[in-house]
Amino acid sequence: MGLIFGKISVETPKYEVIKSTSEYEIRKYAPSVVAEVTYDPSQFKGNKDGGFTVLANYIGALGNPQNTKPEKIAMTAPVITKDSGEKIAMTAPVVTKDDGEEGKDKRVTMQEKVEKLRMSLEKDGFKVVGDFLLARYNPPWTIPALRTNEVMIPVE
């Protein structure tokens, strides 16, 4: 029941907060292993989350693990999305908290929020060194307003 209401019950990456403002948080993550798949959503009838099924099969979340051992690997969060691919990742140097992938006002797009974050980081002297990633911590059946989603942007 807790997952529906936004409880995060899986392992999440450990980090050190380097700087915290009202607009963002700079975090330093320890190195970690990443399971990643890049796919064409048309392979999954346009389902943009189809790559997650591939990863879930790999770790054994949906039955027998599809890895070389084969052994089950614990589910972790967040699931990282970039472009049209899905990634399960543990590291990213910059994170901002958001109340949903597109937020409550549907006229404000993720790209506008990312640009605002980039401008804040650059104004504070950080150099943006990569594209943004969307980190999703909750399963899809979590009530949208209670989900933990973060935008991650690497900086120097």
UniProtKB/TrEMBL annotation:
Coiled coil: none annotated. It comes from the Eukaryota. Belongs to the HEBP family. InterPro entries: Reg_factor_effector_dom_sf, SOUL_heme-bd. This is Heme-binding-like protein At3g10130, chloroplastic. Transmembrane segments: none annotated. It holds the Pfam family SOUL.
